[in-house]
Design brief:
It is built from three helices and eleven strands, in the order ββββββαβββββαα. The chain is mostly beta strands and 181 residues long.
Length: 181
């Protein structure tokens, strides 16, 4: 995408993101320069190539934790058939989970809280079990699912997904029955 002469990008949502999460095509707020290249100089820095509205090309190096405000073109709405919108194909731990952007259901990265038995020579995750509610009253993991609605989740790009991020609740499939009740 080149920066539109009509300033169409100003109608896109403004996001303040760490440099690590920027994409080519994002337009920097304030300078109206489009990010046309991103290179990893090392694991902690990124070199951004930006095209300004007058055509000038500039290069800047940022720490991955630095944040920039950018205009980002919204992702197109997924085209999902009515039958597919009702229920997902998963019947196990991912039952009822689908990416709201691309309708992917196969694999997700989910950040969960896990109790482990810590030993001097390592960790035994299997021996810990679930704590009682009085130990962690605000956060008891449902043993049937392994994660809760507020957990961060990402559609796994390495397994055919789009990389969309959100919470487990945002990825839950809403059926007509859910909307009515």
């Amino acid at each position: 995408m080149t920066v539109p002469a009509t300033r169409e990008h100003r109608t896109y949502p403004v996001l303040t993101l760490p440099v690590f999460d920027l994409r080519t095509g994002d337009v920097v707020v304030g300078t109206d320069s489009e990010i046309i290249g991103i290179q990893a100089e090392n694991p902690w820095t990124r070199r951004l190539t930006e095209r300004h509205p007058d055509g000038q090309i500039t290069h800047f190096t940022y720490d991955c934790a630095d944040e920039l405000a950018v205009h980002r073109r919204p992702a197109p709405a997924p085209v999902v058939s009515a039958a597919a919108a009702e229920a997902g194909a998963n019947t196990g731990r991912l039952a009822g989970i689908r990416c709201p952007r691309c309708a992917h259901e196969r694999a997700f990265v989910v950040q969960v809280t896990l109790n482990v038995v810590m030993l001097d020579d390592g960790v035994d995750a299997a021996a810990a079990g679930q704590p009682s509610a009085e130990h962690f009253p605000a956060r008891v993991i449902d043993p049937r699912s392994g994660f809760s609605d507020g957990d961060p989740i990402q559609c796994h790009e390495g397994r055919g997904g789009c990389g969309h991020r959100g919470t487990v609740d945002e990825f839950r499939i809403r059926t007509v029955t859910d909307a009515a009740g």
